[in-house]
Predict the structure.
Amino acid sequence: MALERIWAGWRATYVMGAIPGSDAGACVFCALVATTDDVEAFVLERSDLTVTVMNLYPYGSGHLMIAPRRHEGELDALSDDEVVEMARAQQRAVVAVRVAYEPDGVNLGANLGRAAGAGIPGHVHLHVVPRWSGDTNFMTSVAGARVLPETLREGYEKLRSAWPR
């Protein structure tokens, strides 16, 4: 059974227009790098080499992604500086997720290539996903749907408040 999603009207803005002010057909991460409205685009942090953003198609509440600012689809093609800055951004993201959500654990990873589940295979990115013991419930395991208990805006504000400075 394929995992279904429950209707969430608050996602329509993203689905219809990608990143505000961007070309809807462009790479979403490149559009995030180019945008100047971090709040509207759910950007939590920018560094010289990376951008950290809420996942607009989350596995669960608090799902973040970290991408290099440079458009690159291969992990091994990143510079040493990009790899280090992505790792540092991942550390800060884990701190914020733990403070904001108090999860029992955190999944970290990357989907490299479409066959591995990459929704944006042309721009490598890392995932940070808070997890809770027993969070596989009836809706996911039997109904094949996932319920997100907060809006992206609520999660964004929670994570922004918890972000290490």
Observations:
- The chain is about 35% helix and 20% strand.
